[in-house]
Each structure stands twice: as C-alpha cells, then as structure tokens.
Amino acid sequence: MSVEKVVIERKITLVSGVAIIVGTIIGSGIFISPTGVFVYAESIGASLLIWALSGFVSALGALCYAELGTLITRSGGDYAYLLVAFGPLAAFLCLWITLVIGRPTILAISAITFSTYAIKPFFPDCEPPDDAVRLLAALCLCFITAVNCISVNWALRVQNIFTAAKLFALAVIIAFGLYSMATEGVDNFEDMWTGSYSVQSISLAAYSGLYSFGGWNILNMVTEELQDPYRNLPRAIWIAVPIVTIVYVLVNAAYFVVLTKQEILSSLATAVLFGNKMFASVAWIIPIFVALSTFGSINGVILTSARLYAIGAEEHHLPSIFALVHISKKSPVPSLIISCLLALIMLFWRDIFFLINISSNAYWLCITACIAALFWLRRTQPSMHRPIRVNLAIPIVFFAFCCFLVFIPLVTEFWDFLLGIALILSGIPIYYLCIFWQQKPQWLTKASKMVERLSQILFVTAFPDKEE
To answer: What pLDDT score was predicted for residue 1?
Structure first.
C-alpha cells in the first residue's frame, strides 16, 4: 500500500496570483483616506501625479522582486531572500518583526475596518459600538482562517471573488465620476496645480501614496504554491501593479470631480462623502463596498502570512509546529491558526495607529534590505540562474526611494522610529537564545517535541515531504 506524500501543491494560477496582488493592495485605503495625499500636497494635480508616481515606483520594486523571486523560487519573500544573501540572523530579524508586529497589525486594522463598515448601515446616525465592531472583527478573522484551513482552493476562490467585487465597486465610483464630469463639469479642477510644494509636504504626500500600494510583493510569499513561477510570478506582478495604479488614479479623479477641496479635507471617509453626494438614498452601498474590499485583503494576508511562518519553521527559526501541513487538505493549519490568534491579540490594542507607524517603517526597512540583497547576490553569486535580470538602474532608483521612506520618520515620528528599531533589535537576543544556542536543557527539548506531537494529532498534520 503506497502512502500519499504530504506536499504543499501548486494551486495558484496566474489569475489567482493577480487576484492575490490586486486584492491585497486594494484594501480600505482607496475608499477611506485619499485625504492622506491631498492634505499634504493641497493640489489636485499634484495629488493625481503622486498617485501615478507611487504606482510607478511600486512597479520598479515589483520588477526587482520579479528578479529575486525567480532567482530564489522558495516561498517566504523577504525572509527567503535575506536568508540566502545575508544569512540567518538578518532573515530572522525580518521574520521576527513581521511575526510580532507587521502581519498581526495589518490583519487587525483590516478586520476592524471591515467590521466598522459592515455594521455602519445599521447605525446611520451614530458611530457603531466599539465592542460590537471588535467582536465582528474577531469573527471575520476566525471565519477567513477556517476557510483557509479547510481548503486552499476555497481560499483562492474567496480571493478571486472579492477582488472582482472590489474592482466592480471602484468601477462604479469611476463611472459616476465620469457621469458627474459630463453633466456638472469640472469646476473643482480650476487652479488644480495650486498647492504646497515644499520638500516636506511632497515627501509626506508621497509617503501616504506609496503606503497605499503596500502588498505589491505579496505573491513572493507563496512562490512554491505558484504554478510555473518563472513565468507566472513576473506576469502576475506586471499585470496587477498597472491595474492598481490606473484604478487608483481614476478613483481619485472621480473624488475630485464630485467633491470640493474643503469636503475632501473635512473627513478621512472620502468614499462615504462621495456616496452621500452621488447615491443619496442608497448611500449605504459604499460601506458595503469597503467591507467587501477589506474582507478580500484579510484573506490575502492570512493566506500568505501562514506560508511565511511555515518557511521560517523549516529553517528552525520558529517552532516546528509552524511547518506542519494537514495530511489531506495540504494547508498549514497550525500556522494559520497562530496567525489568527496573533491578530486577535492585536484587536485588544486600542491605539492601533501607533502600531501602524512602527510596522510600516519595519516593512520598508525589510524591503530596503532585500534590494541590498539583490545587489549583493549580483556581486557575490553572478553565476546563479537568473530568468529575469532587470537593468541595474531600476534597483538603484528604487533603493533610493526605499531609503527615503525609511528615514522620513526620523523627522516626522522620531520616537516611533526609535521604538521600531528597538523592536527589530530585540530579536537579536531571541535569536541567540532560542536558535543559535544548540545545547538546550533536555526538558525544554522534550516539551517542544510534546507540543509538536500534540499538534500533529489535534490538527491531523505532518511535516511536508520535499518535492523531487
């Protein structure tokens, strides 16, 4: 009797890959706070230009990651690239900050945004109760985690469906913007280039724009599950990033056609103001659009986060239970559940925007390190097989932008910047104590093995076999 191998299958097609990227990038931001760019630029023309340039810069980064992703075809994204280029300590620090702050914060914020706007139609004249918002956010996280545990195919279908739904929602906004342009004119575009052009203002506006494109490198986290990664990884990136850029520019243009400068600056919920003005009695449809959008983003982040942690466990940088895969479902169930639990813990943190400042800086620091890894690998391992090799000017330009984004908080959020660096560096003693130190007490080794065996029995999992 032959025994079926336990392997993570390549189920992500080109279409699903595009949906993961688009669905993760387009979250709540484009519906809620294009104000973040406009409040600093104070100019319609400059705002639209910054949105377009943010997409262009993200495309440069995506090209760099296409080279890295086809050079190192292992799942894990930033972690895998830093591991190959700079060794285990650098890779662990990236994994550490992602595990502790990065991904749980993103999931918590997205879940809270989802629940806030899902409940909003039931509380038209006031803010939804905070406890109800957080309870629904927790239910949302648990539901999406359950879907990912039960079936990878279901998770991919959810991603495809909700990506299509959010693109439809944005298409509706764009269509009504064009309708308003045709019927009401473009009076709001008079003096569209009048604004603030100081270095600090443009820098902060660009930072907000680039932050809204976060997620363009998400597919690199699941390269081992992508069909024909040498072809489909760069194709998915090159299709998805331009789609998002075009959509972002057109949606912002629609906002500016319908809303005055004063209205946009009066509230972060730009799409809600747009809906109240254009849809009147059916304005509740905008909160539903936002809920659909964030639901898809949560699914994409959970799907990829679990794979990142599983790769870390394979390298013995995380407890072994993160690497366990369900025998029949082929999904990393323990890793998915732990990802959900960490996000649920973040729901109890009331000042969630403080965590955003820390995690966003760590995010760009990891990306900067990965571009440095690209340079290093070109110099030290020039003979490695590179299906894609981008022009050297592209990573140089993108590296300069990354450095710019990393060091902006030194001026704007100095103490948050220092705390973020401290959190990253706190991983160094953790690394030497838990990973580098091999001669651990016997009782600790036995306890680890007991947890591992219990997880195998409880979740019907095993360690995946390596593909030949």
So the answer is: 37
Amino acid identity at 412: T
Q: What is the band of 397 on the pLDDT scale with cuts at 50, 70, 90?
A: very high
User: Which is nearest to 434 in space by CA: 179, 92, 101?
Assistant: 92
Mean pLDDT of 429-439: 86
For 181-232, write each residue's pLDDT tens digit: 888 777 778 878 887 777 777 777 877 787 778 778 877 777 777 888 878 8
CA distances from 10 to 13, 152, 222, 331 (A): 8, 10, 9, 12
> Would you state the structure tokens that stand for residue 43, as one six-digit string?
């100019």
- The Cα 430–Cα 436 span in angstroms is 9
Quickly count: other Cβ atoms within 10 Å of residue 406's Cβ: 20
pLDDT of 466: 58
CA distance between the termini of the chain: 21
Q: How far apart are CA 383 and CA 215, in angstroms?
A: 30
Query: Containing H/E element for 114?
Result: helix 103-119
Q: What percent of the chain has pLDDT over 90?
A: 13
Distance, in Å, from the CA atom of 412 to the CA atom of 285, rounded to the nearest integer, reads 36
Closest CA relative to residue 137, chosen from 291, 270, 359, 27: 291
Q: How far is CA 52 from CA 87, 219, 351, 364, 403, in A?
A: 36, 22, 31, 19, 20
Spatial CA neighbour of 337 closest among 156, 458, 220 = 458
Whole-number Å distance between alpha carbons of 241 and 62:
8
The residues, ordered by sequence, that sit 6+ positions from 416 with a Cβ below 8 Å of its Cβ are: 354, 357, 358, 361, 409
Residues comprising the chain, all counted: 468
How many whole angstroms separate alpha carbon 319 and alpha carbon 317? 7
Amino acid of residue 423: L
> CA 182 to CA 180: how far, in whole Å?
5
Task: Name the nearest CA neighbour of 26 among 199, 167, 187.
Answer: 167
Nearest-10 Cα torsion for 367, 369, 371, 374: -140
Q: Is 271 exposed, middle or buried (0-12, 13-18, 19+ CB in 10 A)?
A: buried
- Rounded alpha-carbon distances, angstroms, from residue 362 to 103, 367, 409: 11, 9, 11
Is 90 exceeded by the pLDDT of residue 281? no
- What is the identity of the amino acid at 63? L
**Which residues fall within 8 angstroms of residue 432, CB to CB, at 6 or more apart?**
none
Distance of CA 372 to the CA centre of its chain: 21
Q: Is 8 helix (H, G, I), strand (E, B) or coil?
A: coil
